[in-house]
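Journal club side-thread
Mid-discussion, someone asked how the predicted structure for our own chain would compare to the paper's figures. Pasting it here so we can look after the session.
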Amino acid sequence: TTPDGKSRNLPSKGAFNAPAGSMIDMVVPGSGGFGDVARRDPAAIGRDLLEGYVSERAAREDYGIADPQSLKAAAAVEDEA
């Protein structure tokens, strides 16, 4: 949360800049990955698509996502909020 009160979800991987006075609240899973691929949160896949950590091909083939673009678009809208 930045000093002006804006909060955002951070990508699952990568870097970011936090202005002085920001508060970073990290809620992280334990070790061992995400478990069963079919149970992976679609919103998390969307964020990974948006950040470039998962390709559309991998989303279709590895996660069984029929329309990766819709998840990516939803993540972009969430990121703008």
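Post-session note: The radius of gyration is 14 Å.
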